[in-house]
Amino acid sequence: MKKAYFLAVFTALLAAAPAFGQLLPSYGGERAGASALSFLKNDLHVGSVGMAGAHAAQVGNPYSWNGNPAGASDVHERSLALSNGFVGGGVQHSLLALTLPTKDKTTSIGLIGNVLQTGAFEERTEFQPEGTGRLLYGTHASLGVGLARRLSEQFSMGLVLKGIHEVVGDYRNTTAGVDLGFLYRTDVRGLQFAVALRNFGGSSALQGDFLASLFNRTPVTGLNKNTFPTEFCMGVNGIAWERGKQNVRVGIQLNHPNDNAENYRIGLEYTANDRLVVRTGVALQVAGRTWPALGLSAKARLGRQPIWLDYAATPTAFTGMASVVGLRLPLTLQN
């Protein structure tokens, strides 16, 4: 009875989310699009996508390097996580996260690769609007090294240092950034509190001087510098209902980006047993996100090796259904 009541209340909250979002203050929308390196904002943490981005205080797994790196301290065996986001228009965005815990299981070391590729697109100019016959490519990539450590039974911190390289046609950009996170656990119904700072770094600019046409042009002397898409997050996550192996966790998060208005995420995660997890969530004060996100994780076996298959989808008003698929597997052979 309690389970049915709780689910009914949460369903009502999801249905009322668009109206509720109008009651919240929305400041900073005029900053939209003010930062570069926007591929770093894409969420490739499949569990986070299923909960509409409420990732900061989630129970850690190998995807945590792409959300709150402090959560990776919960990973106690060598693991590999792969995910791919289908952005639309032929654009693919992929994540690889390798986690190597120490023998005492208090520290995890991570190697994180993040690559977005646009595929080929045709160069067009005002003199040749149908195309010049030259194909251009866009590649945006970051490679990071992470460290997550449990400083006590309750407190963890995590850090990712990442180098970033972009290639857009004949222009290039190389820079570096940092992700930082903290996670505090309590002994009350699995309640966790977290703060995270993502994509912190200085300004950078594309480098190059190519001009498709020299007619009525002056040489390129320099391109404008732009800031990182830095985001500060505060979140809480805890068990709202539990019976046997089943439980329902609820996550709430506030995001403060430097290039848009503050927004709020509310997510729910239902664990049916040790093989199936279902997620949903809503994003408030985010343009084009009026419908709940959905996610699913299922445990399977590849020979003797257990693996997790993950999927999440977010309906959007601008790019349709944005989906992410993922795979998690331990690198220790099971008996």
List keywords for this structure.
335 residues, mainly beta, Porin
Record the SSE blueprint.
Blueprint: H1 2-23, H2 46-50, E1 79-88, E2 91-101, E3 107-122, E4 135-150, E5 155-168, E6 171-185, E7 192-200, E8 231-243, E9 246-257, E10 263-273, E11 276-284, E12 293-302, E13 305-316, E14 320-330
Antiparallel strand pairs: 1-2, 1-14, 2-3, 3-4, 4-5, 5-6, 6-7, 7-8, 8-9, 9-10, 10-11, 11-12, 12-13, 13-14
Beta-strand segment tally? 14
Low-confidence stretches: 12-22
Succession of helices and strands: HHEEEEEEEEEEEEEE
Please, what is the CATH homologous superfamily?
Answer: Outer membrane protein transport protein (OMPP1/FadL/TodX)
Q: Using only CA atoms, what is the Rg?
A: 21 Å
CATH-assigned fold name: Porin
From the spread of the alpha carbons, the general shape counts as elongated
Task: Tell me the number of structural domains.
Answer: 1
Major sheet strand order = 1-2-3-4-5-6-7-8-9-10-11-12-13-14
Oligomer: single chain
